[in-house]
Amino acid sequence: MEYLDKPLHDETSQAHPAYWRGKSRGINDVLKIVSDIMLNYDNGSGSNNNPNIEAMRRALIQWRELVNSTFTSDEAKKEVEKAKK
Which residue did the predictor score with more confidence, 50 or 8? Predict the structure, then answer.
């Protein structure tokens, strides 16, 4: 049986297995970016080559900075540290 990639079958049960591996990998990569921002591992330097992902990244970094400037209490800092574990 010949196994060819047929974009017509993407998002269907007939999709090539590599399609699903790539989709899963892409989702995990974006989740890692979001997680790094939320846990303060991404300091905002550098950029992502995908303009859509970079726009999301920049917006989340701005949101994080706003949240961090709003919640500066010791209690909030403890909660952030707890979330990192």
Answer: 50
Geometric angle at alpha carbon 38, from 20 and 29, rounded to 5°: 20
Write out the two tokens for 14: 């007939």
Alpha-carbon distance 61 to 33, whole Å? 11
Structure tokens given for 52: 């859509």
**Is this model's pTM higher than 0.90 or not?**
no
* Cα(4)–Cα(24) distance, integer angstroms: 20
Distance of CA 5 to the CA centre of its chain: 27
CA distance 14 to 43: 41
